[in-house]
Amino acid sequence: MYSSNSDTASTATGTTVGTVGDTEERTRDRVLNAVLEDGPVSAAELGSKLGFTPAAVRRHLDALSKAGLVEVKLVANQKSGAGRPSRRYVLSHRGQTKLGNDYLDIATQALKVLGDAAGEDAIRKFARDRFATMEIRYAKAMDGIEGLEERATKLSELLSSDGFVGYTRNVEAKVSKALMRSVQLCQGHCPIQDLAREFPVFCDMETEMFARLVGVDVRRLSTLAGGGHVCTTHIPVGRGKAPLRAEKRTRIQFTKMERPR
Description:
single chain, alpha+beta, 5-stranded mixed beta sheet, 7 strands, 54% helix, globular
């Protein structure tokens, strides 16, 4: 009898502990997804969005950080650039992988076979075709939007709808000339990050697509595939929309550290 009661108590306790653990894991996943959607994001902003106390948010962020799923980035004041940089949280590569798709491993292997059999031109054509259908959809949605900044904003919204967590940031130039105004098109998540790391041509084709859609020179500043915490594309908005041939107006610059291997 005693033994039976002891087993029952132990089982009940185990169930309670398991339930608490499951709840903690689900809550932590909510925090992780919020970092994905809003990162770089502060702990206070996460607390406000999720309805958590500051202490609760930091506890979950500390756990995610120890697990290697999120990283802390020091971000300067976007408006003035003055003051101490704020602590912002972003997904790490491991966090990106956790939220990624298993099919990418298969796709990567398939492209390697394609490259071995038909050469790099075949991979480039595959990447170009992949973005062609996306570009058609985006072009229709952006039809009638004339302002460069408005086009960049709409492009970020379309990217978000496809899982890239897009947003724009205004960049204040250190000069008074209106022609120097620009925005940064950012992508907080890349569903094909590991694929792009292996085959950087996907980043190249995406950047060329951006240039055609907004109609001006664009410059890729960083990529998730290259180790950046976001994909960032520089778009000058202080000039009129002047469509040019994509290969002439698109400048894709990678540092040695960014260039995927």
